[in-house]
Structure prediction request, 140 residues.
Amino acid sequence: MTRLPSSSYEIEEELVLACHRTVCEMRDTWGKAIHGERLNQRRADKAGSDKGSPDYLLVLNGWNHPLEFKKSKGGRFSLDQIVAAERRRAAGVETYAPKRLLDFDALVAWSERHRDGVCPGCPVVPPYEASTPQPLMVPA
Prediction:
């Protein structure tokens, strides 16, 4: 009997694992030049990294994509995550926020074909707006 995830952390963790399995399969089975590594998920301040560090780094076709995973319903970004994403954005790197494996697959497919710009339709960490709640944002 399969146990269902009971917390938002477990739901997020399952998405991280599913995405990492996809990367490993593409690399090991299909011989794609792709790399993915889990960064400091949870407790970043105790792990020796900055608060707001992304959960995962996807490297593909010359791209470094920081990923911040959120559950599909109700996942919110902390202020530290938004500020860190803004700093990366100012340096020319967008932080993607896949909510589902399909979002991750779309980013991988787009990255295999493109060398510049932002993946249209891929969820990203929203820009900082102090007066409004921060939902997931899809670029236009």
Summary: The chain has one domain: 8-113. The chain has four helices and three strands. The chain has a mean pLDDT of 81. The first strand starts at residue 34 and ends at 38.
